[in-house]
Write a structure and sequence with these properties.
Among the domains are: 24-55 and 154-351, Alpha-Beta Barrel (TIM Barrel), CATH 3.20.20; 385-458, no CATH class. 32% of the residues lie in helices and 14% in strands. It has 15 helices and 17 strands.
Length: 498
Amino acid sequence: MEYRLTTISYLLSFFFLFTADAGQIGVNYGRIANNLPSAVKVVQLLKSQGIDQVKLYDTDQAVLKALSGSNIKVTVALPNELLNSVSKRKSFAFKWVQKNILSYYPSTQIQAIAVGNEVFVDPNNTTLFLVPAMQNIHSALINLNLHSTIKVSSPIALSALQSSYPSSSGSFKPDLIEPVIKPMLSFLRQTGSYLMVNAYPFFAYEANSDVISLDYALFRTNPGVVDSGNGLRYFSLLEAQLDAVYAAMSSLKFDDLKMVVTETGWPSKGDGGETGSGEENAAAYNGNLVRRVLNGGGTPLRPNADLEVYLFALFNENKKPGPTSERNYGLFYPDEEKVYEIPFTVEQLKKWKSIPVNKGKTEKSPVKGSGSDGSVSTSSSGGTYCVANEKTGKEKLQDALDYACGEGGADCRQIQPGATCYDPNTVEAHASFAFNSFYQKNSRAMGSCYFGGAAYVVTQAPSKYYYCTICLLSFIIFLPLRHGVLTLESRNSSDERV
């Protein structure tokens, strides 16, 4: 088979996908502590780590001044306690924007205003003030000619959902839909803004560790979970959570809205009952998440919508109330030392090595809904394979196949006419061969079996027309030599550690 050349734009899209610069990473800078470095030192720390996006929880003067001229993009927040005043008086909103935005912009690159935070769970019952407050802040931006560069939104928690499992059943709580959800989404659409979402797989895992695989929660190699509603396969809990929000928006006819993950993280320490907390798991979650984001691409439901994620949080904050975990989400200690090593940029990602899966331990928790009996094996041993997702359609498979055998560098000689694996001569079979070649060549790295949603990972050698793919590749691994030449080394798949 001869593989046709694709358009320049298509090749460029795959180039960005696999050169790991499509998604965006930011960090939340909270300050509920009495031992943090000065704002000036914090900005120096951000720049030294290559972090160019930060989200604040207020409009602190010292922080905004320190960020001036730094080229760091900033999201600021209007606190919940001001929602009432801002919603009722346009003059109050205008003065707030003048004082807290115009005074620093554009030297401080404020790109968004988070109006309130998780307002629907605010014990002071500020929900009905939210959309009017957002509208008045936007009106103030219009009056100051800042509305085209500064977006207005509000972070919601996943508790705003009535249903989130499976993802395809995602829906908002009925009592929120008419009063606030629909008006808010309409406002975001009209102003060209996006929905801010705070999502924490840690909480879902902590509450359901008997049915959720830790590997699934930490972006580590796992068999995945098939959504019984839409047939899509998920390999991370966070993506399943985000698609539940997308599904909820879709049910209200807001398919066109973008989403930004304004908070997500994992605690490096917790109380005895906080299952899953710990430094190793925090490093795995945040590090693998960064890799996932920088590898590009979106969720299974929105594969072309690159992820933008803000990690929570920059520092451990010693004055936060609640369980031990609340004070241990930080990526850095107050003395600016890293709590654990993770990358923040593409260059750092090239040098980063993730923690081995479970360090040889076997994770016994099954993933609900991932197999015919509702459970899966989560052992870290055994081979994994990349196969075509037939549900994406032949055209998308063909485009991905062209890339894999072209710029992707997969070894496709065996699926040429007359070669050993030419038959069965179907796009699905050939795509599976090429995808698996690319996947193995790239050491089965996270994101190397995606192809814009046209492929997924399996842990058992599939039968049917995938046989040729597996019989050639299941016992080999591609290893780069020092001089850049690829060779093959025999390996028993039962001894592999992913």
